Amino acid sequence: MSKKDNGTSLILAYLNEKNRPYSAQDVFCNLQKQHGLGKTAVVKAMELLALEGKIKEKTYGKQKIYFADQAQFKDVNDADLKAMDCQISELIAEAQSLTQSCRQLDAELKELNSSLTTEEMMSEIQELKAECSEYRARLEKIKSATNHVTPEEKEKVYKERTVYVKEWKKRKRLASDMINAILEGYPKSKKEFLDEVGVETDEDCKVVVPSN
């Protein structure tokens, strides 16, 4: 493209090839990136082409629309139009089919990308086998043990625990009542009293009475 040409031949060829209406802004956006045309140059070139009669110009309100001179194209009869319509329908159907195939392939690709590789699967299998072997060894050790606790012994332990917890709560309550009674006539704080008599509370030992 020569400097004197200012893009007119390129724009003329583009409009004839596309054979559809465009504004100067449309042509600028479509050709600027590839050919580096400036917007002012595009506007002047299209106005010049219209003035020379090489393209047609229509004004809609404040916007000008440009399109190829239709006189240069041969007439199309009804049969040709129907053939084109059929071809368009076939191409649309083919495009839809390809789009669907692309979607299916994308879904399969995402699934494959999220799946483990063969090496990763083999490594995980080995880890699981080692874990299973460890559990089997522990199970065999438990089965071979001779110091199993019988249900009767277990029940006895639970009953004893209940008795001890009940007694613990009872004694804790009695001790608390006694301390509170003494503190009514004691001039210092509760903490100072406990330190003085050498009493350690459950809280000092960081133990909690079981709820049951």
Automatic annotation (TrEMBL):
Domain of life: Eukaryota
BP-aspect Gene Ontology terms: homologous chromosome pairing at meiosis; meiotic joint molecule formation; meiotic strand invasion involved in reciprocal meiotic recombination
Domain Leucine zipper with capping helix: 149-205
Stored InterPro entries: Hop2_WH_dom (IPR010776), LZ3wCH (IPR040661), WH-like_DNA-bd_sf (IPR036388)
Cellular-component GO terms for this entry: condensed nuclear chromosome; DNA recombinase auxiliary factor complex
Gene3D superfamilies: Winged helix-like DNA-binding domain superfamily/Winged helix DNA-binding domain
Swiss-Prot/TrEMBL keywords: Coiled coil, DNA recombination, Meiosis, Nucleus
Coiled coil spans: 81-145
Listed GO MF terms: double-stranded DNA binding; recombinase activator activity
The Homologous-pairing protein 2 winged helix domain, residue ranges: 9-68
Location(s), subcellular: Nucleus
One Pfam family hit: LZ3wCH
Residue stretches spanning the membrane: none
Chief location category: nucleus
Signal peptide feature range: none
Protein family (similarity comment): Belongs to the HOP2 family.
This protein's name: Homologous-pairing protein 2 homolog
Organism: Seriola lalandi dorsalis
